[in-house]
Amino acid sequence: MEIEDLLKANLNPQQYEAATVLEGPVLVVAGAGTGKTRVIEYRVLHLASQGVDPHRILLLTFTRRAAREMISRASRHNRLCQEVEGGTFHSFGFSVITRYAHLLGLNRPLSFLDEADREALLHRLAAQLGYTQRKVRFPSKGTLREVVSASFNRGESIEEVLLKDYPHFLQWAGDIERLREEYVRYKLDHNLLDYDDLLIHLKILLEQEPVRRALAERYRFIMVDEYQDTNRLQAEIAYLLAKDHRNIMAVGDDAQSIYAFRGARYQNMFEFLEVFPEARVIKLERNYRSSQPILDLANALIDGAKRKYTKVLKASVAEGPRPRLLIFKDPESEAEGIAHKVKELWDEGVELHRIGVLFRSMYIARPLEVALARRGIPYRTYGGLRFIETAHIKDLLSHIKVLANPRDELAWHRVLLLVEGVGPKTAEELLRRITPSGQWQGALSELEGHPRSGKGIRKLREALLEVAQAPTFHEAVEILCDYYAPILKERYDDYPRRLSDVESLRQIAQGYRSPERFLLDLVALESPERSLLERDDLPLDTRPLVLSTIHSAKGLEWTVVFIMGVADGHLPISYTHTSEEEMEEERRLLYVAVTRAKRELYLTMSHEGHRGGIRVFQRLSRFLDDPAVLPLLELEGEPLVLEEDSPALGREKLLKKVLQS
DNA sequence: GCTTTACTAGTTTTT
DNA sequence: CTAGTAAAGC
């Protein structure tokens, strides 16, 4: 009973129970830093050592990274654990849908639409329906994507979504409903899947009794992590998988729910107890991560929430410095201040990767990147625009997509618009000739005589021909990069930086034999470049400082944490209309950020900010400017706090003052 | 008629 | 910084 001893030695009684109760539903309410990763790790290990075939264990997590991490930790004790099936709902959906595509009437290969592809497609369809030439403003493609996507993952009609999020567009409810239908039809006709489809189609498959029974039979033990951030579809999927055998464990913390904008429902935690009334509830409240002063702040923050959370975190490390609030004059000195402090810590021997800098939105970190670069402090950013979402990488990928599937209209559209002398009209004309058959060579040569675009089209055709004849995929990518480089230089002022991204792509391509696999890894699911950069094998002292959005920092921890921009307008972020629900989520976001810190926590803000070139005064975040919270902080800098009732100048007064000066 | 360029307004979080 | 729009240019 070696494993048994290991469990007993490494888990507290609640954790032990969560790891070892294998039969029947279990809901684990796990506060931040209470060792839920460890629970899952040991539960997997326990299952495997009880003789459960690892292929019958399904671990659904929020990111693939989280799944990888837990499985690899369990595998250190028992190599069999490597065979456990783990990933996100989306990646699980993708593999199930691929296997049962025929039941859905879809033909392989299936292609994946990322967010930008979805927008492009919606825009095209809206234009075809004549919606874009409206006198009254029709929603932009980004908004259309949000609305359509929200209607799917919240299970609401377009009208309901508009009512809540975009009441000013209510008049277009009918048109957008129609657009949504066309969008779905197009995807089905062209074997395309987007993020929502990965869940929708999975659920549709699970509603077919034979499929459901086969999958429920296969996966006898199911674990779902970050349950507070699952949406309605995901909860239904979990239920369908587990309703027969009922061996399901959901782990979550309603106080850490930060994805409502994406359809997440912390209510799923409570509803779990309704669909599985016999579920055992286990609460983890002993925090192993942070010192008590940090947890006091976290507890006070969450105590100020409208909705009451029942957990109170208790630290196992009592002592530690109080969290510090640093107030700077402007964003630049805030950045300088943090960079300076980081350098100091580094010089004192704190390894960079033990320090994390967190912020609500990426733009907050811009000045910091400058300050770090100046001091030669290596850093890497998490969150924000990802590699494959940048324009130049999408350009290049479109060329590869076109070769992999010559009927891919979106990819062709992008490729053609890059050709000199080709605009929307010529591109549409070419698309009409190319995509029905996929015979691009003939279609392209026909237009080579065109006075304006002919030359560019010929270049494209010759390059594609050469690429198609390349002996290996890797060489094909080389040729494409050479074709694309001059276009890139022509189009982007900042081409040197972009060119180095192209170089990275070229290197990533070296590991692949075929475009299909490459595109799937890169576009459909988590991109490999992350794992390339996240090398765990790097010596500890060369791992860089992490800058991360709070959303991306979920589940991570650092010895020293900086939270930038704790000012009203940044955290909570000011957005045109903010409901009470959204404000509560902003509070939880700060809670999540605070609970990432183990020993030292710095909260920083600046009084001056720029909004569109105009200087504005900022006040401390309303979550911190609270009599129950402020005394928990060590203050540094001038707390130039504007009076709560300091009256706004108002248009007329401002006008007078400006005219006088 | 179509493409390119110049300008302006608004800029969250992510599988 | 980028998406959308208006005007200029071929």
Short précis:
This protein is α/β, with parallel strands linked by helices. The strands form 5 sheets. Strands 13-14-12-15-16-11-19 form a 7-stranded parallel sheet. It has a 6-stranded parallel sheet with strand order 3-2-6-7-1-8, with helices on both faces. The N and C termini lie far apart (84 Å).
Structure description:
The structure is a single chain. With 661 residues, the chain is an alpha/beta fold. The protein is 48% helix and 13% strand. The protein has a seven-stranded parallel sheet. Helix 14 (292-303) runs antiparallel to helix 26 and helix 20 packs antiparallel against helix 21 (454-469). The chain is globular and about 80 Å long. The termini are far apart. The model is unreliable at 527-537 and 640-646 (pLDDT under 50). The chain binds a DNA duplex (15 and 10 nucleotides) through helix 5, helix 10 and helix 19.
